[in-house]
Amino acid sequence: MGDQDWWNEVYSGPREEIPWDIGVPSEQLVELIEKGEIKPCPALDICCGTGTEAIYLAKNGFKVSAIDISKEAIKIAEKKAKEAEVKVDFRVGNVLEIPFQDNSFGFVNDRGCFHVFASEYRKWFADEIHRVMRPHGVYFLRCFSDKELGDWGPYRISKEEIINTFSDLFEIFGIDDIKLNGRRGSHRGYKCLMKKK
How do residues 2-30 score in pLDDT, each as one tens digit? Predict the structure, then answer.
């Protein structure tokens, strides 16, 4: 959804007009970390935007790398990380060609990345996430669900689509309904925790 120029234009505009850039980590990620379900390890934040969740993970002891297709988003993220006095390895790049070696990460964080890809790219996406993860690494997905009305913005993803895309590569620990908060209210989504097979 959108090419690199489109994303750069979005992130060059006023921050308050970026619907998903709410400035705080998602409650689902906070709950996961506070419960200690994921221990600090090398982590990758995909489609990291302005770095809010990457910075949160770094503050909680993770060794964080983060990737986004928008150089403008990465510029903002690097500034925020400096202000927060944490180290994050931010990279401009495509999630379908992640610029890291195989078996690099114990945790991959995805708040709204998978759902920007059309169906023909989803298996490729899953393969690439799987490639960079360590054995038994954990992938945490949050996406718009097919219960969200309308056809603007991200693709609506069904539970069946999640299962069909990831189950060959990952053990899936449930797919739960959530509210994805944005600047213009909340949207119906899914969260899904899965472990690399």
Answer: 588 877 787 887 777 777 788 899 999 99
DSSP 71-101: HHHHHHHHHHHHHHT--EEEEE--GGG-SS-
Instruction: Return the residue matching tokens 């992640």.
Output: 98
CA dihedral 124, 118, 110, 142 (to 10 degrees): -130
> 30 — phi, psi (to 5°)?
-60, -45
Q: What homologous superfamily is domain 4-11+31-196 in, according to CATH?
A: Vaccinia Virus protein VP39 (3.40.50.150)
- Structure tokens, 174: 């449930």
In this structure, what DSSP letter does residue 116 have? G
Residue 26 Cα to chain centre, angstroms: 11
Euclidean distance between CA atoms 80 and 42, whole angstroms: 20
Domain range annotation of the chain = 4-11+31-196
- Please say whether the dihedral angle defined by the alpha carbons of residues 120, 125, 131 and 136, taken in this order, is positive or negative: negative
Residues ≥6 apart with Cβ < 8 Å to 194: 138, 139, 141, 166, 170, 171, 172, 173
> Which residues make Cβ contacts (< 8 Å) with residue 109, sequence separation at least 6?
29, 43, 44, 45, 46, 53, 54, 57, 140
pLDDT of residue 1: 54
| Ranges in the chain, pLDDT < 50 | none
